[in-house]
From TrEMBL:
<dbReference type="InterPro" id="IPR037401">
    <property type="entry name" value="SnoaL-like"/>
</dbReference>
<dbReference type="InterPro" id="IPR032710">
    <property type="entry name" value="NTF2-like_dom_sf"/>
</dbReference>
<protein>
    <submittedName>
        <fullName>Nuclear transport factor 2 family protein</fullName>
    </submittedName>
</protein>
<dbReference type="Pfam" id="PF12680">
    <property type="entry name" value="SnoaL_2"/>
</dbReference>
<feature type="domain" description="SnoaL-like">
    <location>
        <begin position="6"/>
        <end position="116"/>
    </location>
</feature>
Length: 122
């Protein structure tokens, strides 16, 4: 499980969507819970691919650094520091070149040797 998480985060940091998809189950459920933007939930690799491709375009660079990792039987929790630089203006307040710095937690669930559920909290 730890190897899947490491591979996912490394691909995420490289903005390598294909690498991210390699470790995801076909029936992936992804949920992003943000204290500013609410909750986004998607199901399936096709929807994840679309979201990941759109997300990559938003950033000039992005990096998740693992602070801690807790493994369960078929689950894991990862605390991360997140740093990113916007590639485009998102709003009047969030402009290209601005840096985002967040701390978050990601919860992973595994099935058939792949990541089947990923929930990000930030």
């Amino acid at each position: 499980m730890e190897e899947l998480i490491d591979a996912y985060i490394a691909a995420y940091n490289r903005m390598d969507v294909a690498g991210m998809l390699d470790v995801l189950h076909d029936d992936i459920t992804f949920e992003n819970v943000s204290n500013t933007d609410g909750v986004l939930t998607i199901h399936g690799k096709a929807a994840f691919t679309e979201l990941a491709c759109r997300s990559v375009e938003l950033f000039a660079e992005r990096m998740q650094l693992v602070r801690s990792l807790v493994l369960g039987t078929d689950t894991a929790a990862v605390e991360v520091d997140y740093h990113a630089t916007l590639a485009h203006d998102l709003s009047d307040e969030k402009k290209a070149g601005d840096t985002l710095v967040l701390r978050g937690v990601s919860f992973f669930r595994f099935k058939d040797g792949k990541i089947s559920q990923l929930t990000d909290y930030s």
